[in-house]
């Protein structure tokens, strides 16, 4: 049974500005394992990755019904399967978390579905 749906969109130009002005923002968004993936990427792909993960975590907080604050961004960890598919491997939700992330040159969008 679906118990929550969340969606979020991020402007990648804005994300790039945030990274340049405040590099510590990266560690407020990414877990240690996510950061390891991030550090292996080129500059353009880093912006897409961080934008996508940020959008996922915002979408999760909407689906979970709390918003960011009660759930920290680092409480949700999104890694990838061998084929590159994103997968939520850790979160405060007890059930299955479905995730989808997409990018254009200007935006990253993510959708989360929580299922029990």
Automatic annotation (TrEMBL):
<dbReference type="GO" id="GO:0005737">
    <property type="term" value="C:cytoplasm"/>
</dbReference>
<comment type="similarity">
    <text>Belongs to the P-Pant transferase superfamily. AcpS family.</text>
</comment>
<dbReference type="GO" id="GO:0008897">
    <property type="term" value="F:holo-[acyl-carrier-protein] synthase activity"/>
</dbReference>
<dbReference type="InterPro" id="IPR004568">
    <property type="entry name" value="Ppantetheine-prot_Trfase_dom"/>
</dbReference>
<comment type="function">
    <text>Transfers the 4'-phosphopantetheine moiety from coenzyme A to a Ser of acyl-carrier-protein.</text>
</comment>
<keyword id="KW-0963">Cytoplasm</keyword>
<feature type="domain" description="4'-phosphopantetheinyl transferase">
    <location>
        <begin position="4"/>
        <end position="105"/>
    </location>
</feature>
<dbReference type="Pfam" id="PF01648">
    <property type="entry name" value="ACPS"/>
</dbReference>
<protein>
    <recommendedName>
        <fullName>Holo-[acyl-carrier-protein] synthase</fullName>
        <ecNumber>2.7.8.7</ecNumber>
    </recommendedName>
</protein>
<dbReference type="GO" id="GO:0000287">
    <property type="term" value="F:magnesium ion binding"/>
</dbReference>
<keyword id="KW-0444">Lipid biosynthesis</keyword>
<feature type="binding site">
    <location>
        <position position="58"/>
    </location>
    <ligand>
        <name>Mg(2+)</name>
    </ligand>
</feature>
<dbReference type="GO" id="GO:0006633">
    <property type="term" value="P:fatty acid biosynthetic process"/>
</dbReference>
<keyword id="KW-0275">Fatty acid biosynthesis</keyword>
<feature type="binding site">
    <location>
        <position position="8"/>
    </location>
    <ligand>
        <name>Mg(2+)</name>
    </ligand>
</feature>
<dbReference type="InterPro" id="IPR008278">
    <property type="entry name" value="4-PPantetheinyl_Trfase_dom"/>
</dbReference>
<keyword id="KW-0276">Fatty acid metabolism</keyword>
<keyword id="KW-0460">Magnesium</keyword>
<keyword id="KW-0443">Lipid metabolism</keyword>
<keyword id="KW-0808">Transferase</keyword>
<dbReference type="InterPro" id="IPR002582">
    <property type="entry name" value="ACPS"/>
</dbReference>
<dbReference type="InterPro" id="IPR037143">
    <property type="entry name" value="4-PPantetheinyl_Trfase_dom_sf"/>
</dbReference>
<keyword id="KW-0479">Metal-binding</keyword>
């Amino acid at each position: 049974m679906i118990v929550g749906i969340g969606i979020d969109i991020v402007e990648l130009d804005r994300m790039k500005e945030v990274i340049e002005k405040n590099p510590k923002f990266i560690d407020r968004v990414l877990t240690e394992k996510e950061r390891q993936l991030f550090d292996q990427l080129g500059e353009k792909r880093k912006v897409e990755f961080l934008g996508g993960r940020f959008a996922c975590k915002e979408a999760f907080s909407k689906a979970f019904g709390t918003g960011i604050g009660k759930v920290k961004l680092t409480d949700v960890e999104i890694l990838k399967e061998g084929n590159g598919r994103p997968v939520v491997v850790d979160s405060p939700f007890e059930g299955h978390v479905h995730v989808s992330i997409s990018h254009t040159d200007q935006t990253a969008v993510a959708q989360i579905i929580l299922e029990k």
